[in-house]
Design goal:
There is one protein chain. By secondary structure, this protein is α+β, with helices and mostly antiparallel strands. It has one domain. Helix content is 39%, strand content 26%. It is built from four helices and six strands; from the N terminus they run ααββαββββα. Strands 1, 2, 3, 4, 5 and 6 form a six-stranded antiparallel beta sheet that branches. α1 runs antiparallel to α4. The longest helix is centred in the first third of the chain and has 32 residues.
Amino acid sequence: MKKLIILIVLTIISCESTQDRINIAEAEVNHIKNADYGKELSANFDYEKKFKEEAKKFRFKDPDTLKFRNIKKPTKGFYGFFSNPYGTFRDYSLNKSNQNNRKYGYVVNGEINAKTEAGGYGGYDDYCLFIRNEKIIKFEESFHCKITEKTIKELKDGMAKDK
């Protein structure tokens, strides 16, 4: 009897956390879809040049020797805290102030190979350039920037598994 009660309690707790994940994911999808991304980048906005210029200002030891590859076209994205109940870092509390502090705009991802202190190249790493209204907001390691389309897909895939 004791085991049956424990099983029922665990089932109830499991259902609640599943519904919590779904609620958080649905709220995030709606927030991301309805966000203001600023104006679209004009056709003559040279995102590759901007990416390379900003990379040289970043904290690389020898910025003149940077190697670039796979610089992707700008896509809608955001920068800042993200409640993702299905991601590696799970946060089950949907925090409206964090949503409001998130910055929306366009993200340019690319790979950079930089020289190490020993003088050799260390291998390509992912970086992102975050742009809003054709102004550079931030250049950072790419895990800081989220691509809207990919994020919504990840959330919807997680919800589909939970339902």
